[in-house]
Automatic annotation (TrEMBL):
InterPro entries given in the database record: CxC1 (IPR041320), KDZ (IPR040521)
Basic and acidic residues bias locations: 47-56
Signal peptide feature range: none
Domain of life, source organism: Eukaryota
Stretches for region Disordered: 1-23, 41-67
Record's protein name: CxC1-like cysteine cluster associated with KDZ transposases domain-containing protein
Originating species: Melampsora larici-populina (strain 98AG31 / pathotype 3-4-7)
Length: 400
C-alpha cells in the first residue's frame, strides 16, 4: 500500500508529472489535457534552411529562402518556460491533498477521541511526569502475522528519537496507537513523525497568548533539540523538516479539544445564559447585591471595530472547498445580514450623527484596499471585565 507523504512533489520541467501520473480528479484531468495541448502548441519545430539566399526558383517560383525572425540570444531563452496556468494545477493538487487529509482525520476522529479521553484522565492531561508517555494500549489477541512494525520519529519538548513501533488491526488508524503512547502523528495515514501531546498543548497555549507562528517555532524547537539529541535525517541524508507534520498534528490536537468541549456542553446541557456566565461570572453569574452602589447596572458592554484585520479572497470562504467552521463567539453571517436588513428600514437621520463622527474606515477611504479582501474588518463586543462576548466580520462600510 503506498505511503501518504502529504507533500506536493516538486515540478521537474524535463520530466513533467502530468505525463506519468494518473489524475486523481476530473479537475486535474482537464488541467493535464490543457497543459499538454499548450506545451504541444508552443513547441518549436525546426525548419529546413536553404543557403541559396536570394536565388530564384529555377521553375519560376519565389525564392526558396524565407526570411525568419531574428533568433534571440541563448541567455534570453527560458529553457524552463512553464505555462501560465501551472500555478492553478499546483493549487488544485494541494487542495486535493488537504481535502484528503481532512477526510482521513474525520474518519479517524471518533476512535482517536476515545483514546484521547482515556489517556487524558490517566495522565492528568499529560502533565504527570511519570505517566505521560506510558504505553496505555489495551491488551489484544492479534496474531504476529497481523502486526506490522515501522520506525517513527518521536519529538517531545526535551527529546527527539527514532522508535520502532508495532501496529496491529486492533486500532483502525495508526493515530490511535500513537495517542495511547502520548503522541499524535504528523500525517493521517502511516505517520513517520509524531509529536508528544504535551508539546502540542504547550504550543497551543503559546499561540493562544503570544500569537506565535508555526514555522519559526518549528525551527526554534529543532535547534533547541540539537543539544543532546541525535540528528534525524531523511532518505536523502538531509535534515528532516518538522513544519508540515507539526502543522497537521496541531490540527488533529485542536480537533480533539473541540470534540472535548462539545461533549462537555452536551453532558452539562448548558443554556445560553450559562455559557455567558462561564465566560464572565461577574456579569452573567448569580446576582450579588452591592450596597455601596445600589443603582449600578448589571451589565456594561462596549463595542469597537478593527479595520486592520483583513482576510484576502484566497483565504476566504469563497475559495475554500469546504465550509469554514467559525468559532462560537462569532455571529453567523445570516444573523448579521438579518440585522442589516432590519436597520435599512429605519430613517437615515438616526445614524447620520454617528457616521459623521466616525470616519476610521468608510467605503470611500478603504475602497482601494478592499477589492481583494473577503472580510475587511472585525467588530467586537466585550464586557467591562475585558471578556470578549461576541465578534462579527465586517464587509466594507466601516463604522458607518
Amino acid at each position: 500500500m503506498p505511503k501518504f507523504t502529504g507533500v506536493h512533489q516538486p515540478f521537474n520541467p524535463n520530466k513533467p508529472y502530468w505525463t506519468k501520473d494518473t489524475p486523481k480528479t476530473d479537475l486535474q484531468k482537464r488541467f493535464f489535457e490543457k497543459m499538454a495541448n499548450a506545451v504541444k502548441g508552443n513547441k518549436r519545430h525546426g525548419s529546413s534552411l536553404d543557403h541559396n539566399h536570394g536565388e530564384p526558383d529555377p521553375y519560376g517560383g519565389p525564392s526558396r529562402f524565407e526570411d525568419l525572425p531574428p533568433i534571440p540570444a541563448l541567455d534570453e531563452l527560458d529553457i524552463n518556460a512553464i505555462p501560465a496556468f501551472i500555478e492553478e494545477i499546483h493549487q488544485a493538487r494541494l487542495e486535493d491533498e488537504r481535502h484528503e487529509r481532512d477526510l482521513a482525520l474525520e474518519r479517524a476522529s471518533q476512535e482517536m477521541f476515545s483514546a484521547y479521553i482515556e489517556c487524558h484522565l490517566k495522565t492528568s492531561e499529560w502533565g504527570n511526569l511519570l505517566t505521560w508517555d506510558l504505553d496505555n494500549k489495551p491488551a489484544c489477541t492479534c496474531r504476529p502475522s497481523q502486526r506490522r512494525e515501522r520506525n517513527v520519529d518521536l519529538v517531545d519538548i526535551l527529546t527527539r528519537r527514532k522508535v520502532l513501533i508495532t501496529f496491529c488491526p486492533c486500532q483502525e488508524n495508526d493515530q490511535t496507537r500513537l495517542i495511547y503512547m502520548g503522541y499524535i502523528g504528523g500525517s493521517p495515514k502511516f505517520p513517520q513523525t509524531a509529536f508528544s501531546i504535551r508539546l502540542l498543548r504547550f504550543y497551543h497555549l503559546i499561540w493562544k497568548f503570544c500569537s506565535t507562528r508555526l514555522g519559526p517555532f518549528a525551527r526554534a524547537l529543532d535547534e533547541f533539540l540539537d543539544a543532546g539529541n541525535p540528528l534525524i535525517l531523511t532518505k536523502t541524508d538531509e535534515p528532516r523538516q518538522w513544519h508540515t507534520p507539526l502543522y497537521w498534528a496541531i490540527d488533529a490536537y485542536r480537533q480533539m479539544l473541540t470534540m472535548t468541549e462539545e461533549a462537555l456542553q452536551i453532558e452539562l446541557n448548558l443554556t445560553l445564559i450559562d455559557k455567558l456566565a462561564e465566560n464572565c461570572p461577574r456579569c452573567f453569574g448569580p446576582p450579588v447585591q452591592n450596597t455601596n452602589y445600589p443603582l449600578e447596572p448589571d451589565i456594561i458592554v462596549c463595542m469597537d471595530g478593527n479595520f486592520q484585520h483583513r482576510r484576502h479572497l484566497s483565504a476566504g470562504t469563497k475559495q475554500a472547498k469546504k465550509p469554514i467552521k467559525m468559532p462560537s463567539l462569532f455571529l453567523p453571517e445570516e444573523q448579521v445580514n438579518q440585522m442589516q436588513a432590519r436597520l435599512e428600514g429605519l430613517p437615515e437621520n438616526d445614524f447620520q450623527a454617528c457616521a459623521d463622527q466616525h470616519t476610521a474606515a468608510n467605503d470611500k477611504r478603504g475602497n482601494r484596499h478592499w477589492g481583494g479582501c473577503d472580510e475587511t474588518g472585525l467588530m467586537g463586543m466585550a464586557c467591562r471585565h475585558d471578556h470578549p462576548l461576541r465578534f462579527a466580520n465586517i464587509k466594507q462600510s466601516g463604522e458607518n
